[in-house]
User: Fold this.
Amino acid sequence: MLFKIASASLIGIDAYLVDVEVDISFGIPGFITVGLPDASVRESKERVRAALKNCGYKFPSRKIIINLAPADRRKEGSAFDLPISLGLLAHLDLFPHENLRDYLFLGELALDGRLKPGKGILSSTVLAKEAGFKGIIVPAENEKEAALVPDIDVYGMENIVQVVKLLSGTDEISPCSYSLQELLPQSEYEMDFQEIRGQQHAKRAFEVAAAGGHNVLLIGPPGAGKTMIAKRLPTILPPMTFSEIIGVTRIYSASGLLKDKGVVGERPFRAPHHTISDAGLIGGGLIPKPGEVSLAHHGVLFLDELPEFKRRVLEDLRQPVEEGTVTVSRSSMSVTFPSSFMLVAAMNPCEDAFGGLASSEYDCTDTQKSRYYSKISGPLLDRIDIQIEVPRVEFKDMVSRDQGESSAEIRKRVARARKKQLLRLKRKKIYCNAQMGTKEVKKFCQVDGEGKELLEMAVDRLGFSARAYTRALKVARTIADLGGEEKINPVHVSEAIQYRMLDKYF
Assistant:
C-alpha cells in the first residue's frame, strides 16, 4: 500500500513542502530511502524501527520504500522521522488514513518514541498555513514558536503515541493556545545608560542612531567606553513589532539557536570576534546557513577593533549594509537571507593606541590616523552614517555621583521618533529613516537655503561623496524627528554633518 504524508524542509530560512511517500509491498524485507536524503535522513530507519518497537507497535516485515518528493532537492535533518513512522503505522490500520491529509508533520524520534525538538518549525508553520492544512503537529518543545502563526491549529506532542491517539480520535486532544503576552518574554536588560560616565556627545549620537536605525563608528583610545556604550544600545532601541519578531525568530529557528526560548522578543546583539571568516559573518556552507549579519537582523552587529578584521570579510559587509539582504550562491542553489541591522563598529585612533596615554595630551597625527584608517575601505566607511570620537573619560566624570538619564527615558524619546517615521513611511514598508531610498529622501528630507549652504560646504571642504550627502540628510531627518520638528532646520543639518569626522581622510 502507498501512503502520503506532508512534511517540510528548509532552503535558507524558507520552508518548502515535502511529500513523504511510504510504499509497503511484498518482497524481500528492506528499507530504502530515496529523494536525495542526507546522512541524517538515511539513518532515520534505525530510529524509526527502534521507536516503534519500544512503543509497542509492530514494525512491518515487508519491502519498504520511502520517497521524499520533490526528488531533485537535497533533504537534510531528522524531522522526517515522524511522517515516516506514521506511514508505517497507517499500514497497521491504527487510525483512518484520511486524517493524514489534514496535517503537516515534523519531528525527530528518540529511541523510546519521544519527539525531540527540531529546526525551522516557525517557517514550516507559515508554509502549512499558506498550503491550507488544518493544523501542524510538532514536538512539544517547538509549540511556542509554531503558535506565533495565527489561524492554524498547532499540536505540540510529547511522543508518537499521542500522535496516534490524535489521528485515531481515541483521546480528545486540543490544539495549544497561547496569548501573545505569554509567548513574548519580558524585556529585562541588566545594563543601563546610567552606568556610562561622561561621554555626553557619544550618548547623544547613539540616541540619534537608535531613533533612525543609523550605523555608527566609535573612534577612541582603549578604556574610553566604546564597547560599554555599544553593548547598551539595545536598551534604548524601540520594542520590536510583531512582524519583526516573526522575522528574527524564523532566522534563529532555522539556525537551531532558539533552544528553550521559543520566541525572540528582544533585538539581537551580535559581537563576532575579529578572526571570524567571511562565511561565518555573511553565511555559507554546502547548504547555506545564516551568518552573523542575519542573526543580527532587526538588531545590532557590533564589530570591535574594526581594522583587525580581514579586509575581505569587511568588504563582504557592503551588500547587507546597503540592501538589508545578503545572497549566498553555491553551485546547486542561491539563497537570500534578511540582514537589516544596525552596524556599530569601534576602533582606536591609530595603531599605537597606548602610545600617548602616558603623556599629558593624547593625540595621533593625521599621518598616523590616515595610515590606520586605510585598513578599512572608503566605500565601507562611507556607508556608516555616524562617525564620532570617544575621548578619554575625565577623572571628575569617573568619581561623579550624577546618574544621568536612564535607558528607559532615552527609549521613550527614541520610540516617539520611530513612531513618526512609521506613520510617515508606512506605505513604503520602511521601518526607519536609515532605510529610506532616493525617492523618500527627496520627498521627506528637504532643506532650506541655509541648510543647503551647510551641505555645500560639507561637499566642497570635507569631501562628502554623494552617498555621504544623502546619509547626512537622513541623519538630519532623524534629529528633527527627535526634536518633534516636521521641517529640517539648519541646526539639524549642522549636527548631522559633525557626525561624519572621517570624510576628510578619504
Observations:
- The longest strand covers residues 14-25.
- Residues 148 and 246 are 8 Å apart (CA to CA).
